[in-house]
Write a structure and sequence with these properties.
This protein is mainly beta and 330 residues long. It has two domains: 163 residues, outer membrane lipoprotein receptor (LolB), chain A (Clam), CATH 2.50.20; 130 residues, MucB/RseB, C-terminal domain (Phosphorylase Kinase, domain 1), CATH 3.30.200.100. A hairpin with a 5-residue loop joins strand 10 and strand 11.
Length: 330
């Protein structure tokens, strides 16, 4: 088994180290480690055939409370997560609420336990700590997989490499420094005032209570494919906002770790899509600086027109699987 460069210096002979069970390793990955920590990490995302690197400072407080500060040249982007809610700021004063739609933590762990397996567990030393390395792979074909190193005691994250279903590197996270940390009430204070991000398209996904609610708000049927990849199930119904301010229905599927979303689209211009149903590039069109809605190193994208309408599918799984989903839409 090939080891990535970020763990090349790992010594594979840590004598006398207790080895956590696979269930505990998965629990640390999904639910977080046992104790709060402060860390500095190097993140490398694969994009257009090269690595885009950044540094991030992380404060983890347990109970899905995380504060991350990303370097952006002379400034920093701070992202605050409190359970299922998230906000971001670049000046510490003006906060923007980010779109929701992720799984609740215990439900994510339940689904991941059913759909993933922990393989190739091995011992090592990383950052002077006894560590456990392993692979986290889906029980089903066509999904991304991970190679992870955690501190043997407590499960602090030391490194993680995410691979595409085809085995190509999507991202690498390397912890440069990590230490125990005691959170204060101010560390995870909810922003007293926040604004909605000025965006349209997929990044504006807002979860609603039910399929019926999504259809009532949008006036359209929620996408309902005949084929759903093994291990995936509906976890969220939602709506997204078009450039014209109209709401479009969407549905998100997850296997506990990976996910894909089906968006139903309006045709024509002025609603996030240009002539012919092409997604409109530009500020706010799916993300900062616009979105080139094609499959890339980080995600699979399929645009599909069925008798019932036009659809956009975005997800972590292989494009071939996403296309099977699209072609099964009525």
């Amino acid at each position: 088994m090939r080891l990535p460069a970020l763990v090349a210096l790992v010594a594979l002979s840590a004598a006398g180290m207790a080895q956590p069970k696979p269930e505990q390793l998965l629990r640390w990955v999904i639910l977080g480690p046992a104790k709060p920590y402060h860390a500095v990490q190097k993140v490398a995302l694969r994009s257009s055939g090269r690595d885009v690197e950044s540094e991030v400072e992380v404060w983890f407080g347990g109970e899905r409370r995380v504060r991350r500060s990303y370097s952006l040249g002379a400034s920093r982007l701070v992202v605050l997560q409190l359970g299922g809610e998230s906000w971001q700021t670049t000046d510490g004063e003006r906060w923007f609420r980010l779109a929701e739609g992720g799984l609740e933590a215990t439900e994510a762990f339940r689904r991941a336990s059913a759909n993933y397996k922990v393989l190739n567990i091995r011992r090592g030393t990383l950052l002077g700590r006894q560590a456990i390395g392993f692979e986290l792979r889906s029980k089903h074909e066509g999904n991304p997989w991970r190679e992870i190193w955690l501190a043997a005691e407590g499960g602090w994250p030391l490194s993680e490499t995410v691979y595409s279903p085809e085995g190509q590197v999507r991202s690498r996270v390397r912890t440069m420094r990590i230490e125990a940390w005691t959170p204060s009430p101010a560390s995870f204070a909810k922003p007293p005032v926040s604004e909605r991000m000025e965006a349209v398209g997929p990044t504006t996904f807002e979860p609603v209570a039910s399929r019926e609610e999504a259809e009532r708000l949008s006036g359209q049927n929620v996408p309902s494919p005949a084929y759903v990849p093994p291990g995936y199930a509906v976890v969220r119904y939602g709506v997204v906002r078009s450039q014209a301010g109209r709401l479009q229905p969407a549905v998100r599927y997850s296997d506990g770790l990976s996910s894909f979303t089906i968006f139903r689209r309006f045709g024509g211009a002025g609603n996030g899509f240009g002539p012919g149903g092409r997604f409109q590039r530009g500020r706010g069109a799916g993300g900062p600086g616009g979105a080139n809605l094609r499959s890339d190193e980080q995600r699979s994208v399929v645009q599909h027109r069925a008798p019932s309408g036009a659809y956009l599918l975005i997800g972590d799984l292989a494009e071939s699987e996403l296309r099977r989903v699209a072609e099964s839409l009525p």
